[in-house]
């Protein structure tokens, strides 16, 4: 009997090989799966039956709290948690697997959607810098990176230059196809990221699927917002950050952009074409060819004895092929005779130099500059013709470094501006209207409203661009000297600011302008922002050449709010 009992006890032989053990384990799991499914099914079916059978009252009251699958007691908290998991998972999906690579013309590019508070498009052009376009407002930003120039496709363009004629259509087709692929890939990325994180957090497939579906809905809502706020004209006003020497070639020619604008796709293609030309077969930058029908004016102001400003101005003159430099004063700091030799480089900057006196420039400074080669000094409403432009200017009536004289303030500035206005009226009656009015203080420059289409000033150490009530555009330049040598006293260096103005050679009207901002002391990157006045926007009706009023009136100007500039006290530290 003992032998029989021992024989009934199972003693399986050990597997002869590890593969046998793995196969045996798998078969046991498969055979046990139906029983587990049946138990789960019966538990779900029998619980309600037991309730219908009338369990004790105390059990019936406590059973719903113990039943699986009941609704949570805090649905709002659960929904917020699901939303947080969805957003985080979608963001991780975009960052980790949301990018695509696509050929665009002769270039290999990478495209990706990135979470953003302001939206827009950023085009990275290493090593030159990047372009930012305000193309849309949505919680996602389109990042486009130019990875490299394909040697085979670029060589085909070099060998067959006639292909440049169809390059824009090719680029448009490539961008459209890449954008569609990016949309599909991004949808899969956000759904996968949200579902994976939902599964890791909740460990329930239904919750994971809900997170993935919610992520797709959020992406679709973001796409709808981007479509509703899409601005096809944003390519006309790009912002470039990078090497200053590359800005004219990357941003493009102002006159061509204004006159040749048709649709966004073509402008995007032209923009990519400009970048392509930078990556030519010899890896050299093309020479910037300025439009011969525009006059390029470099507006600087408030240098305040910063010796580095002369090198910056000379570089801008060379890169942008400037026709005339206009300095609206405060070139000096104390106006002493010992400082006069600081002005010697003004004659050798590569372009005519027009200057009006600021409140830190003395009459000794003005006398030193008068008569120097290629330098024109304007005062008392005097008029000069330089580089095809008729300019009139007035010097600042106050010399604030002289503490023995009480500053007269804005009334003195408006009196000086009145002399400028009288000169402008005289020139208009004589049939020789002035194109640009110059003054250091904006309080004086505003007196030229309605008498010249453009007025330039400084003094405030920051930019202001306004359209005055009678239609004159007043452009106040920041400090081209970064606040001068006193900037080292500040915790953060003040930026160096200048502007390039593009004027039509025939009408002398402003076509576009570039705002150039350089980092302060110790910084080397530059930012260039392109702007267009309303009358030169595509589809706008240009104003008559004899009127100083822009199309649409002052209240319709889109390039800045219409208000008179804030005025700093004339006797202040500036």
UniProtKB/TrEMBL annotation:
Biological process annotations from GO: lipid A biosynthetic process
Residues annotated as domain Calcineurin-like phosphoesterase: 295-462
Keyword entries, A-Z: Hydrolase, Membrane, Metal-binding, Transmembrane, Transmembrane helix
Family annotation (Pfam families): Metallophos (PF00149)
GO annotations of cellular component type: membrane
Biased composition regions of type Low complexity, renumbered to the chain: 55-68, 538-560
Chain positions covered by the region annotation Disordered: 1-23, 40-73, 531-574
An annotated Gene Ontology molecular function: metal ion binding
Positions of transmembrane segments: 79-100, 182-202, 209-230
PANTHER family (alphabetical): PHOSPHODIESTERASE YAEI, TRANSMEMBRANE PROTEIN WITH METALLOPHOSPHOESTERASE DOMAIN-RELATED
The protein, known as: Membrane protein
Species of provenance: Streptomyces angustmyceticus
């Amino acid at each position: 009997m003992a032998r029989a009992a021992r024989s009934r006890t199972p003693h399986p032989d050990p597997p002869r090989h590890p593969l046998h053990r793995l196969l045996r384990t798998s078969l046991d799991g498969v055979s046990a799966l139906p029983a587990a499914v049946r138990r789960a099914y019966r538990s779900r079916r029998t619980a309600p039956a037991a309730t219908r059978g009338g369990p004790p009252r105390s059990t019936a009251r406590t059973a719903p709290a113990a039943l699986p699958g009941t609704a949570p007691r805090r649905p709002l908290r659960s929904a917020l948690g699901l939303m947080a998991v969805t957003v985080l998972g979608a963001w991780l999906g975009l960052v980790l697997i949301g990018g695509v690579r696509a050929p665009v013309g002769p270039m290999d590019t990478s495209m990706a959607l990135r979470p953003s508070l302001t939206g827009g498009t950023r085009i990275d052009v290493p090593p030159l810098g990047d372009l930012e376009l305000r193309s849309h407002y949505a919680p996602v930003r389109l990042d486009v990176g130019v990875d490299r120039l394909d040697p085979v496709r670029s060589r085909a363009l070099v060998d067959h230059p006639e292909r440049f004629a169809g390059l824009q259509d090719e680029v448009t087709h490539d961008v459209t196809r890449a954008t569609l692929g990016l949309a599909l890939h991004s949808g899969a990325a956000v759904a996968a990221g949200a579902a994976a994180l939902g599964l890791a957090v909740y460990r329930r497939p239904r919750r994971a699927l809900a997170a993935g579906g919610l992520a797709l809905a959020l992406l679709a809502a973001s796409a709808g917002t981007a479509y509703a706020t899409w601005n096809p004209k944003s390519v006309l006003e790009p912002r470039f950050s990078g090497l200053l020497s590359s800005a004219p070639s990357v941003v493009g020619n102002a006159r061509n952009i204004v006159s040749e604008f048709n649709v966004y796709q073509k402008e995007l293609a032209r923009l990519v074409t400009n970048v392509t030309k930078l990556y030519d077969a010899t890896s050299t930058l093309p020479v910037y060819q300025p439009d011969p029908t525009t006059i390029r004016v470099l507006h600087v102001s408030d240098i305040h004895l910063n010796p580095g400003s002369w090198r910056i101005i000379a570089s801008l003159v060379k890169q942008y092929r400037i026709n005339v430099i206009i300095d609206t004063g405060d070139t000096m700091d104390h106006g002493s005779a010992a400082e006069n030799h600081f002005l010697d480089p003004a004659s050798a900057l590569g372009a005519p130099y027009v200057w009006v006196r600021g409140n830190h420039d003395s009459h000794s400074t003005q006398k030193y500059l008068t008569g120097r080669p290629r330098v024109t000094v304007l005062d008392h409403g005097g008029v000069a013709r330089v580089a095809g432009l008729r300019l009139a200017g007035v010097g600042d009536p106050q010399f604030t470094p002289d503490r023995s004289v009480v500053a007269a303030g804005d009334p003195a500035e408006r009196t000086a501006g009145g002399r400028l206005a009288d000169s402008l009226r005289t020139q208009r009656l004589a049939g020789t209207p002035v194109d640009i009015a110059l003054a250091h203080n904006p309080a004086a420059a505003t007196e030229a409203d309605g008498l010249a289409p453009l007025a330039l000033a400084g003094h405030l150490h920051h930019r202001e661009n306004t359209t005055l009530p009678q239609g004159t555009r007043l452009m106040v330049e920041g400090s081209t000297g970064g606040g001068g040598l006193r900037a080292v006293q500040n915790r953060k260096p003040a930026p160096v600011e200048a502007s390039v103005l593009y004027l039509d050679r025939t009408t002398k009207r402003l076509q576009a302008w570039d705002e150039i901002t350089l980092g302060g002391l110790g910084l080397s990157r530059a930012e260039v922002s392109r702007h267009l006045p309303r009358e030169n926007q595509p589809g706008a009706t240009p104003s008559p050449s004899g009127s100083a009023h822009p199309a649409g009136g002052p209240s319709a100007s889109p390039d800045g709010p219409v208000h008179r500039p804030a005025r700093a006290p004339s006797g202040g530290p500036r």
